[in-house]
From TrEMBL:
Catalyzes the tRNA-independent activation of glutamate in presence of ATP and the subsequent transfer of glutamate onto a tRNA(Asp). Glutamate is transferred on the 2-amino-5-(4,5-dihydroxy-2-cyclopenten-1-yl) moiety of the queuosine in the wobble position of the QUC anticodon. InterPro entries: Glu-Q_tRNA(Asp)_Synthase, Glu/Gln-tRNA-synth, Glu/Gln-tRNA-synth_Ib_cat-dom, GluQ/Sye, Rossmann-like_a/b/a_fold. A motif ('HIGH' region) lies at residues 9-19. L-glutamate binds at residues 6-10, 44, 190, 208. Binds 1 zinc ion per subunit. Coiled coil: none annotated. ATP binds at residue 249. This is Glutamyl-Q tRNA(Asp) synthetase. Its cofactor is Zn(2+). Belongs to the class-I aminoacyl-tRNA synthetase family. GluQ subfamily. Keywords: Aminoacyl-tRNA synthetase, ATP-binding, Ligase, Metal-binding, Nucleotide-binding, Protein biosynthesis, Zinc. It comes from Variovorax ginsengisoli.
């Protein structure tokens, strides 16, 4: 089987130190498997309101400056919406998705009535208000019928293995609830889009930041509901900001400096250090990348 990996940035800003870690890791994971493996770049621009004009091209230029070149032409999610609609239609037909008329305020009030407080940065577990109908409310979103699907598969606890984090498990129905697939008047949800994209592009190995590890169980459930293969997962260490939170554009992450080979090499050396790779004795990005491919095989043992 030919192995296929991908890097899927959102064009809400330029690449920064944290996003380069994920890009480098996914590229190395593919290159460590030999010449038949393929590395793809997918621009995740489905949430058009958050995307900035021209940022997709800037990201592609930054990747190229670092020597991280995809093996096929990049894809954009906004050109793939028909695939997402087909997937949603299949879920609705199978009764694994339903319309929901609840606002965020409605959900918070329903949870408060049950004595459930929303923890900061925690999930708002959907209380299931619209599972049996909209009750006269207009639809605001489509949700995955998580608990119903878990009951059908005979298990409320999903278990999987992460190549770096090890054995993982999550009771999605209890910890997340019926999650959103699409806003009625807005973008496609990340969970559905990424599952459809990975399957359509034949992705066998997902390498991404550890902040996305919690999404994995939801995505595996969707893969099962749609009859799609489940790739292997590896979640990389995060680059942290001064406040201890994940480095992001919201807390001051600076755009990568890649205007010269020396700047690109310095950025790659920093990303490699986060991944546990040794500093490369190299004068250019290509030389450093070649040395890390060998080291990656020893550290992360990617299957052929």
């Amino acid at each position: 089987m030919r192995r296929i990996g991908r890097f899927a940035p959102s064009p809400t800003g330029p690449l920064h130190a944290g996003s380069l870690v994920a890009a480098l890791a996914s590229w190395l994971d593919v290159r460590a498997r030999g010449p038949q493996a393929r590395w793809l770049v997918r621009i995740e621009d489905a949430d058009t309101e958050r995307c900035l004009p021209g940022m997709d091209q800037r990201i592609l230029a930054q990747l190229a400056a670092c020597g991280l070149l995809p093996d096929e032409a990049p894809e954009w999610q906004t050109r793939r919406t028909g695939l997402y609609q087909d997937a949603l239609d299949r879920l609705v037909a199978a009764q694994w998705a339903y319309p929901c008329g609840c606002s965020r305020k409605d959900i918070e009030q329903a949870l408060a009535a049950r004595g459930i407080a929303h923890a900061r940065h925690g999930e708002r577990v959907y209380p299931g208000t619209c599972r049996d109908g909209l009750h006269g409310k207009p639809p605001r979103a489509w949700r995955f019928a998580t608990s119903k699907f878990e009951a059908a598969r005979g298990a409320g606890l999903l278990q999987w293995n992460d190549r770096r984090l090890g054995a993982r498990q999550q009771a999605v129905g209890r910890e997340v609830g019926d999650f959103v697939l699409k806003r009625a008047d807005g973008p496609w949800a990340y969970q559905l889009a990424v599952v459809v994209d990975d399957a359509d592009q034949g992705v066998t190995d997902v390498v991404r930041g550890e902040d996305l590890a919690d999404n994995t169980a939801r995505q595996i459930l969707l893969q099962q509901a749609l009859g799609l293969p489940t790739p292997s997962y590896l979640h990389t260490p995060l680059v942290l900001a001064a406040d201890g939170n994940k480095l992001s554009k919201q807390n001051g992450a600076q755009a990568l400096a890649t205007a010269t080979p020396a700047e690109a090499l310095a950025a790659l050396q920093s990303a490699a250090q986060v991944l546990g790779l040794r500093p490369a004795a190299a004068a250019a990005p290509a030389e450093a990348l070649a040395s890390w491919v060998v080291e990656w095989r020893g550290l992360y043992n990617p299957p052929p």
